[in-house]
Write a structure and sequence with these properties.
The chain is an alpha/beta fold. The chain has ten helices and 15 strands. Strands 1, 4, 5, 6, 9, 10, 11, 12, 13, 14 and 15 form an eleven-stranded mixed beta sheet that branches.
């Protein structure tokens, strides 16, 4: 079983218009509202790729009901924890440029957080746990570390996609997989990273701490994957980016999907990169057929090979 956790869910309100003018009345050509949040997005992408998951998180109010109802309508199993505050709303403005306005995170009580923790006691050996997204300002940045401490002793694969202090706090817990972009990796080590080659020493340092897979994305310049055996490089397939929301989450879902299917690591990496591209090239989430087609355009090389 795969369980995803979204501490800061949202309704993502996408608004499309020809041109966005600050300080003027802007009229939308189209809009749509979807359940959002990184863990939720990963559950959606997993569903598209043929894998089931259970979505966990903290939701409340009429906005929280919308999130739960939409996911259940889409066939995604949910075991959310109810909170007293309303789930936030994020605005995604799609025009000549993409602009995002993220809503204020709700206040979370200790009792609500404890209820979420108890739900994770359902994890069993062989399961996968995905912790994804930002930590609400109302929670300590070490919350992911706290959740991982609770499941210590269980043979659970842990996939973490976060940044900053939240990512720093889980490193010593030896998660199975982390996916910082190159800016987040640089922040982790208080440095600057511009190229894949510059990232390699820091990837190796993370691997030395017991992390099995370190995937670092470089947007249009591809990605690198560090494992115990090798450092791999990947390009990204060509295509027109029409939607960046959920692309990184789809990389995580693609990696997890291919890994659970026991594909060779080079194919796991290519499938993950192709999953992110398939989402970026469409208005929705990656579809399996599109991912498999794009994966043929992703070329994996080992660092150091001639």
């Amino acid at each position: 079983m795969i369980r995803t956790v979204t501490l800061n869910p949202a309704i993502d309100h996408f608004v499309r218009l020809d041109q966005f003018e600050l300080g003027h009345v802007n009229r939308a050509k189209a809009d749509r509202k979807v359940a959002g949040g990184k863990g939720i997005n990963i559950s959606k992408a997993l569903k598209s790729l043929g894998h089931t998951s259970v979505a966990h998180g903290l939701i409340g109010g009429f906005t929280g009901r919308f999130v739960q109802e939409q996911l259940e309508r889409d066939g995604i199993v949910t075991e959310f924890t109810s909170i007293n505050a309303d789930t936030r709303i994020n605005m995604k403005i799609q025009s000549t440029m993409e602009t995002e306005i993220n809503g204020v995170s709700p206040q979370i009580t200790e009792d609500e957080l404890s209820d979420l923790e108890k739900k994770l006691d359902l994890l069993q050996d062989g399961d996968s746990l995905v912790l994804a997204g930002s930590v609400p300002e109302t929670m300590p940045s070490s919350i992911y570390e706290r959740l991982l401490t609770r499941i210590e002793g269980k043979d659970v694969q842990v996939f973490v996609d976060t940044s900053g202090a939240a990512l720093q706090s889980v490193i010593e817990k030896e998660p199975t997989f982390i996916k910082p972009n190159h800016h987040e990796l640089a922040e982790l080590f208080t440095t600057t990273i511009s190229t894949k080659e510059e990232a390699i020493p820091y990837v190796r340092e993370l691997l030395s701490k017991g992390i099995q897979f370190v995937l670092v994305s470089f947007a249009g310049d591809g990605a690198i994957l560090g494992t115990d055996d090798a450092i791999y490089m990947a390009n990204v397939p060509s295509g027109e980016v029409v939607n960046s929301v959920g692309a990184g989450d789809s990389v995580v879902a693609g990696f997890l999907s291919a890994l659970r299917e026991e594909q060779p690591i080079e194919k796991v990496f290519a499938f993950a990169v192709a999953s992110g591209s398939a989402t970026a090239f469409s208005q929705g989430f990656c579809q399996r057929e599109a991912v498999e087609t794009l994966a043929r355009e992703v070329f994996i090389t080992k660092w150091g090979d001639e």
